[in-house]
Here is the input.
Amino acid sequence: MRDAQPLAHGLGGPADLPIPPELAIAGAVAALVISFTVLALAWRTSRYDAATSGRLAPAGLARLVDSAAYGAALRVLGMLFLGWFVLAAVFGRDLLTNPAFGMFYVWWWVGLVPLSVLLGPVWKAISPVRTVNTLFARVSGSDPDRGLYTYPERLGYWPAAVGLFAFVWIELVYPFSTELGPVRLWAAAYLALMLLGGALFGSAFYEKADPFEVYSSLCAKLSVWGRRDGALVVRSPLANLDTVAPLPGLAAVVGVLFGSTAYDSFRDSLAWIRFTQESTVSTFLLNNLALLAFCAGVAVILAIGSAATGIDGGTRRSELPALFAHSVVPIIIGYIIAHYVNYLVEVGWDTLVLASDPLGNGSNWLGTGDLDRISWLSYRPTLLAWIKVAAVVIGHVVAVVAAHDRAVRVLPKQHQVTGQLPMLVAMVAFTVGGLYLLFAA
Amino acid sequence: MRRVPLVATVLTTLLLLTGCGSDEPEVGTELPPESGRIELTFEGADAPPTERVSVELGEEVELVIKSEEAGELHVHTDPEQTLEYAAGTTTLTLTIDEPGVVDVERHEPEALVLQLEVG
Here is the structure.
């Protein structure tokens, strides 16, 4: 059990050891070599087409997934999670042993990533705000998919980018992130805004403006599960990734997801800690600026990398960042796995143990309260370092291939090779920067 | 005045993102690991700049605290450990038996005073 003091320190015990420098360098070299090999050798006509790609999933599986009972069961599951969180957050004690923190920061933020990569758009299926919106619509006899207004196309994913930034801000910058009041307030504001959005714009709102649905559904594009004309299909993750809708704000979403994870590594580095200690400017302000700079920096590098190409009359330069943003998703997921894998296993498991006693009165409702901690991976730092570098390099390979296929589809013939180079440089910068942070922080 | 940290942050970000930061000098003096003895001197609210010190897994570390006032240190292992020191010189012992980077924080005023790289 942790000491019973609310500390502005985040969850979990020790941070991971840095990865060895030789492994970081090996990963960076691999990323470089792979990038140019793909550029030189890969296909010259686009292979991915959302209208034809994928095989129909086995009929039995599709029937199950599309059945009303299965959908309802998942909705009940989502409501149970919400109910458990509310129980702990409202009636539990304001201590780090309250499972609400782990449910909020670890299960919700980190756990959704592997679940979505394995199972598809999980949050869309269990989202309590979708469920409540549907129930409201049913009671009032209206259509849950339709609101009072049509969702403005120009907004795209921008509301989700803002929501995701609000989450990483409370997680990584806000000094009182592990006190119950702020977590409750954040969750309440999220629920209220999502229900309001659903009432105004119908459930189409959630697809583009719910930060967690956008996050989860982006990760799900690297799963094998997709839809074609509504039918469940099995696709290669690369073909599935190609079906990401290039809406406005996608580059900002990518910037927040990757930039915030990189910032999380960076803020633990000795160089940054020393810099903030020696500066006369408040650490809180510096941390705010650094988080913003990381997120904006990633989005700007992506924008420049994708738009710095020759184009002809058929392409609009301003649309290129959104058209290429999907290709950064594998780099993000590789880096999130590298950064959080041990944290997810250890603190995610701790949360399951703590969840058995949501009110903090010593009860063991789920029977998980006596389970031992899992620290297996912490004791194998070499294996952990290999997992991290492998995740980053695999993410990079998938990203480069995805960007290449998009380039040969949308760029004019004479610019297809040279036009890819700036994007390739941006991707190598992301990957090498990520490896550097894993080594230096 | 506000612009300087912003520019510094943006530059640092760009340097890091392009991987050019790797030629920075190694910060933090590492005491020889066999000594297992770390000295921290606090002067009122002031603490020395944070150092990162390598220690062996399961090795006993001696923390020598010199301070005008009594206080406590929080060692962010799991479970967390609290070490109290008195005014004057206090020698504390600490053993960490899980690998990782462990933050040692002083409270009131709150400050990260030490990182132990346990491996």
About this structure: The two ends of chain A are 27 Å apart (CA to CA). DSSP finds 18 helices and three strands in chain A. The beta strands of chain A are 55-56, 225-228, 231-234.
